[in-house]
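Input (structure):
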């Protein structure tokens, strides 16, 4: 049921958002003339590496000096258009294709890079070094998930993994649909890049009762 839901919703999303894709293709090219799409290695189910597709929101060769560093508040690597795309998650629209092909799900632990500089650290670390890595690899990574919705933006990875492990042990089809609905709400209100709460206190309180 989950796979049917993922495939159907992702394919419908690609078809319905096609005009937006066309607009972003044009705007990105006009903005700085660089590549439109950005492919990045991510860790999928069973530790298999796949290429995660995104509309490019950072400057070309942005990580040449910073290394594999996740985006931060007021990140100078992000373009002006990129900031708009990131607060609404429009940069992640191409990942709908990753869902169609079965590399990702709509809901699950976030698809992470094999090696990245974690919050409050200066040197890159492999994802396998964090407790909970093996367990979160038992399911497909998601476009959205409990950690993406509830956890503060810049907390260390091992803290985010706690949310992922909870989800793996308590997930259900209807809970997934609820998280998708909340994700649409965050998208429409442009709150994906907020460092504080992305949802109202009441919604977070109801969600906390589930956790």
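Output (sequence):
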């Amino acid at each position: 049921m989950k796979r049917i839901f993922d495939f159907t919703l992702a394919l419908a999303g690609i078809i319905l958002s096609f005009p937006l894709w066309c607009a972003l293709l044009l705007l990105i090219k006009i903005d700085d003339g660089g590549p439109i799409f950005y492919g990045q290695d991510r860790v999928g189910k069973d530790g298999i590496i796949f290429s995660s597709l995104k509309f490019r929101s950072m400057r070309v060769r942005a990580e040449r000096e910073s290394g594999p560093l996740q985006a931060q508040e007021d990140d100078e690597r992000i373009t002006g258009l990129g900031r708009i795309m990131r607060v609404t998650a429009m940069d992640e629209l191409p990942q709908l294709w990753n869902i169609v092909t079965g590399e990702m799900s709509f809901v699950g632990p976030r698809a992470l890079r094999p090696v990245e500089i974690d919050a409050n650290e200066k040197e890159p670390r492999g994802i396998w070094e964090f407790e909970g890595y093996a367990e979160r690899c038992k399911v497909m990574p998601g476009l959205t998930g409990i950690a993406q919705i509830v956890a503060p933006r810049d907390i260390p990875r091992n803290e985010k993994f706690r949310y992922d492990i909870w989800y793996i042990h308590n997930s259900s089809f209807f809970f997934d649909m609820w998280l998708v609905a909340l994700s649409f709400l965050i998208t429409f209100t442009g709150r994906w890049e907020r460092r504080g709460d992305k949802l109202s206190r009441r919604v977070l309180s109801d969600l906390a009762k589930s956790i």
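Notes: The beta strands are 37-43, 49-55, 105-107, 115-117, 124-126, 142-144. The two ends are 23 Å apart (CA to CA).
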